[in-house]
Design goal:
Elements (H helix, E strand, L loop, with lengths): L4 E3 L2 E3 L9 H7 L18 E4 L2 E4 L12 E3 L13 H9 L8 H13 L13 H4 L11 H8 L22 H6 L14 E7 L5 E7 L1 H4 L4 E5 L30 E2 L5 E7 L2 H10 L1 E6 L6 H5 L23 E9 L2 H6 L3 E9 L11 E8 L6 E7 L4 H12 L6 E4 L16 H11 L3 E4 L2 H6 L7 E9 L5 E13 L5 H8 L2 H4 L5 E10 L13 H19 L3 H8 L24 H14 L11 E12 L8 E7 L5 E5 L8 H13 L6 E5 L15 H29 L6 E3 L3 E4 L2 E4 H10 L7 E6 L6 E12 L6 E11 L6 H20 L30 E5 L22 H13 L10 H11 L4
Helix pairs in contact: 2-5, 11-12, 16-17, 16-23, 19-20, 22-23
Length: about 900
């Protein structure tokens, strides 16, 4: 067979493998802009042009590209490097966050623009919901993408010393829009082996025997690893600064499986196809064990014990009752408080499992490279992780390696949302690499993301609350049960955090909580945006709304009467957090935004005739960082060419921290962002960084960067004074030089002078921040909705979000974080659900069975920022990546209550549930 294809105007004659799709064919030839998001034609991240037509290359057989012209995102720009107009517009609007989906949107838009005015033009660009029905974005909320298509510019040009507070574009923007940003697997590693995992078909079983002989006979299979090859050390896949926050209940490969989908064996081969065939040939004998999937049943006497035999060293609260962690506390006397109440409301609320659905799946590649001192080799693990340093620490502990023997690096990460605050692949890949002394790669499929990664914790929240006739809260009591699944990674911490700020945001003299994190034989839960607060906030805010209605009060007035105010203590039954303070207060401004929106709103006029219309509000408070310490080191250096280098450990996955770190540094050094480079998310770069989670990228790592940049500025002024003999206070640092009372010393000259003076160490400065003390951020969400009583459809007529982010470092980026958080929360509120059957097996292991918000589903949210300046955060900033998620579900549920008169207590509020509830209320069901 003769095969020829032109890819980005270059000829290729390599014949595809039998059955090979175009996506893998292109990536194997170095066109890494073509992404794998689903391999099922659902997400559009792999979109390319074939003879000008956009196709999903994961579904397109490579052989069909014979004698055709294929264009990837790398081929859009002109030969001289000038960007395609669509690429330029996405850059100007910053129509991306993590950027993993961006090539798909670019290629779709470019193809539709090429059809403009031709016989093929069917008007899709004027109907973006239809144009983008085959493209998914998990980060942006789609507004930024729409602005990019429409040619709206948001980015501003650099201005020396005035970076903070401006819409500075992301430094990786040009690489994102040209497909040259390098994500985890966008590298070529010679001699690479591929790993696939054999997973358990049983919810609970003991592995009696494994026969690997047939698998090892498959051509290309190099090894089959089982529990006999794995260390017996117990650990947690969760990554925290303090490992004792999580139970040590996990093995790399275990001889007991505890959920359908748990890994049983790892097959390593020359190709993924050989590894998959090897998995099919492994024969496993199991002894099936009793299982339990309901957390209430799991706590009862006589229930199957999921982690039987584990001792106190595992830090499991009550092994025999399947309780991973628990907390109990009371302030005052809740029974007395209920006796003082004129109105009492009690209800049980339930939230579901939700998948992070980051478009880049979990995975890593491990390989060996020479040590810098030439004393041998060290292992490098390139991973899609939010925690490179904590992952290195865990790998060293697990395999008895010194830290200088392991390097962990994250490229650009294609979305996280908490899901990559885990070690899910690095442990088993490292096992294989150390055994074989060869490079090894493991990349999860989309199905594995659902049944082999983690989810948001499902919660059951029982709330009882009382208030006096004047609206004053008297008592709040909660019983919380969080289903942590088969393993306790993040389980106790999520449970603990869920009943912190959600309780403390309201004043009440009497509060009580009993909370449990419970093991079951289902896919493990883990860290997810909001870290438990979203689940409990749904319940608390629904209860506050219902109390107000039963008292005949405006729910907004009721909240204003009972929320904590500036300078007040934050009281929760789980105890006081001494380092947590209200260092700035913008909740009053947030609620004022909602009040104004209600007063001037006319969106009800847009509701179809006969539909039910309602409005609702929710609010939330969140600490601006995790408790117990969250550490970051940074170093800022002057380079020989007069530009600066920023070294920081935190990872970039669309959170925008890289941009903010540049802005902070540019302000401190009175320079422009284009004179700064950033090295990050690499254990070689700085001493330590806890990781990009808990909204710490700005308030922790950013503070370390500020301290380093400020220190370097002082050092450079001192050096200039020494070099010129001019008084230090007369030496003014500028973008490219120091003005020493009229004598201009370029930064290049200053660098050379420092070395001549023997003061080279003064050309760099370090900064460190330990994440304490901490402040709090506030958010409020308001919706006006319409409900079709005949179908249960919910239409959002208007969405308004108010955020107290302190000093907003980059309004464009911060707005994008809010919009993305609202969009993700709407998915969790309206339709997303990881369903499991009676055996705990996931039944929604594909995007087409698990509904993510598409372009057509997401309203345009109006974002308003409070005018506050925090006393703790860097330059007055606060965190704002997790918190926008938390008030969305209750605001929607409260609007639904207002429209229908019915209180919905279970998420998601799908249209069928709404329709059935309306029928029952009408006496028809």
């Amino acid at each position: 067979m003769s095969f020829r294809v032109r890819i980005n105007d270059r000829p290729f004659e390599d014949e595809p493998r039998a059955g090979q799709c175009l996506r893998t064919y292109l990536r194997e030839r170095g066109w890494f802009g073509v992404k794998k998001g689903c391999d099922a034609g659902d997400c559009g991240a792999c979109t390319v042009h074939v003879d000008g037509e956009p196709v999903h290359s994961c579904l397109y057989p490579a052989v069909r590209a014979a004698d055709r012209a294929v264009t990837t995102v790398e081929g859009l720009a002109a030969p001289d490097g000038e960007l395609h107009p669509v690429q330029q517009r996405f850059l100007d609007a910053q129509g991306y966050q993590c950027g993993f989906c961006t090539a798909g949107f670019l290629m779709t838009t470019a193809a539709l623009e090429a059809e403009r005015g031709t016989a093929y033009d069917d008007g899709k660009l004027d109907d973006l919901p239809r144009a983008f029905k085959g493209n998914l974005c998990r980060c942006t909320g789609y507004r930024a993408i729409e602005d990019a298509v429409r040619g709206v510019q948001h980015t501003e040009r650099p201005c020396a010393g005035k970076a903070v507070g401006r819409n500075v574009g992301a430094p990786a923007g040009p690489q994102v829009v040209t497909g040259t940003a390098r994500y985890t697997f966008d590298v070529e590693v010679p001699g690479l082996l591929h790993m696939r995992l054999l997973r358990s078909p049983h919810p609970h079983a003991r592995v009696v025997a494994i026969d690997t002989s047939a698998a090892l006979r498959v051509p290309g299979v190099r090894a089959v690893l089982t529990h006999e090859d794995a260390p017996r050390t117990l650990y947690s896949s969760a990554r925290h600064e303090h490992p004792t926050e999580d139970p040590d209940d996990t093995r790399v490969l275990d001889d007991v499986v505890r959920y359908v989908g748990q890994r049983v064996a790892a097959v390593v081969a020359d190709s993924e196809q050989a590894a998959e065939e090897g998995c099919r040939r492994v024969e496993v004998s199991y002894e099936e064990l009793p299982y339990v999937v309901d957390p209430e049943e799991a706590m009862r006497p006589g229930a199957p014990v999921i982690h039987a035999g584990k001792g106190p060293e595992a830090r499991i609260a009550r092994v025999g009752n399947n309780v991973a962690g628990e907390v109990h506390g009371e302030i005052g006397d809740v029974e007395r408080g209920f006796a003082e109440a004129d109105v009492i409301y009690e209800e049980t609320f339930r939230t579901q499992r939700v998948q992070h659905a980051s478009l880049e799946t979990h995975g890593c590649v491990a390989y060996f490279e020479p040590k810098e001192d030439g004393s041998g080799e060290r292992l490098t693990v390139r991973s899609s992780t939010q925690t490179p340093f904590l992952t290195r620490r865990a790998l060293c502990a697990l395999y008895g390696l010194a830290e200088d023997e392991v390097r962990v690096v994250a490229g650009r990460v294609g979305g996280g949302f908490g899901g990559k605050q885990e070690m899910l692949t690095e442990d088993v890949v490292t096992l294989a690499a150390l055994k074989l002394r060869r490079p090894v790669k493991l990349e999860y499929t989309r199905a594995e993301q659902f049944h082999g990664a983690t989810t948001r914790h499902p919660f059951t929240i029982g709330v009882k609350a009382g208030a006096r006739a004047d609206g004053t809260l008297t008592a709040v009591r909660m019983r919380v049960v969080a289903n942590t699944g088969a393993y306790g990674n993040h389980g106790p911490a999520v449970m603990f955090h869920s009943v912190g700020e959600s309780f403390a945001v309201y004043r009440a003299p009497h509060k009580k909580v009993d909370a449990y994190s419970v093991y079951t034989n289902v896919v493990p839960a883990g860290a997810f945006r909001g870290y438990g607060l979203g689940q409990v906030t749904f319940a608390v805010e629904s209860v506050m709304d219902e109390l107000a209605r039963r008292l005949g009060m405006d729910p907004l007035v009721f909240r204003e009467k009972n929320v904590i105010g500036p300078g007040e203590g934050m009281h929760s039954p789980i105890g006081e957090e001494e380092d947590l303070h209200i260092a700035s207060y913008g909740l009053d401004q947030c609620l004022s935004v909602v009040r104004s929106a209600i007063a001037e709103d006319r969106s009800a006029e847009d509701a179809p005739e006969g539909w039910l219309v309602g409005q609702g509000t929710g609010l939330a408070m969140i600490a601006t960082g995790p408790p117990g310490g969250h550490y970051a080191d940074a170093r800022v250096s002057l380079l020989p060419d007069g530009t600066y280098d920023i070294a920081v450990g935190t990872a970039e996955f669309g959170n925008g921290t890289t941009t903010v770190h540049q802005q902070i540094t540019a302000g401190a050094l009175n320079t422009t962002e284009d004179r700064l480079t950033v090295r990050q998310s690499d254990t070689d770069v700085v001493r330590h960084d806890t990781g990009a989670f808990g909204s710490a990228g700005t308030v922790v790592a950013g503070k370390a960067v500020l301290l380093a940049a400020g220190s370097l500025a002082e050092r450079l002024r001192t050096l200039a004074a020494r070099h010129t003999g001019v008084a230090r206070h007369l030496c003014l640092l500028g973008p490219e030089a120091v003005d020493c009372a009229g004598r201009i010393v370029t930064l290049k000259e200053l660098y050379e002078a420092a070395r001549a003076l023997g003061a080279a160490e003064e050309l760099a400065a370090d900064g460190h921040w330990g994440g304490s003390p901490r402040s709090v951020a506030f958010n409020a969400q308001w919706f006006r909705i319409a409900v079709d009583p005949d179908t249960g459809e919910i239409r959002i007529l208007r969405s308004v979000h108010a955020a107290d982010a302190g000093k907003v470092m980059n309004p464009m980026q911060c707005r994008g974080q809010v919009e993305g958080g609202v969009a993700q929360a709407l998915g969790a509120t309206l339709f997303e659900e990881v369903r499991v059957d009676a055996r705990g097996e996931v039944s929604t292991a594909a995007f087409r069975r698990y509904r993510l918000p598409q372009y057509a589903d997401v309203p345009r949210t109006e974002v308003h920022f409070s005018e506050t300046r925090d006393a703790i955060g860097p330059l007055g900033a606060k965190s704002m990546s997790e918190s926008p998620f938390n008030p969305v579900a209750p605001a929607l549920a409260n609007a639904l209550r207002d429209a229908t008169g019915l209180r919905f207590t279970e998420l998601p509020v799908t249209r069928d549930r709404v329709w059935l509830a309306l029928r029952r209320a009408a006496g028809e069901g």
